[in-house]
Amino acid sequence: MKRVNKISKNQLQRLPAYLYHLQMLRASGVNRVTSPQIAKDLDLNVELVKKDFALVSSTQGTPRAGRDIDDLIHDLIKFLEYDKESTAILVGCGSLGRALIGYRGFDDFGFNIVAAFDNNPDLIGTKIGELTIYPLERLNEIQSIKKAKIGIITVTAKAAQLVADQLVKAGIGAIWNFAPANLMLPSDIIVQDESMASSLAVLSHRLKMKERSLKRKLK
Amino acid sequence: MKRVNKISKNQLQRLPAYLYHLQMLRASGVNRVTSPQIAKDLDLNVELVKKDFALVSSTQGTPRAGRDIDDLIHDLIKFLEYDKESTAILVGCGSLGRALIGYRGFDDFGFNIVAAFDNNPDLIGTKIGELTIYPLERLNEIQSIKKAKIGIITVTAKAAQLVADQLVKAGIGAIWNFAPANLMLPSDIIVQDESMASSLAVLSHRLKMKERSLKRKLK
DNA sequence: TAGATTGTTAATCGATTAACAATC
DNA sequence: TAGATTGTTAATCGATTAACAATC
Question: Does B47 contact chain A (CB < 8 Å)?
Answer without folding.
Answer: no
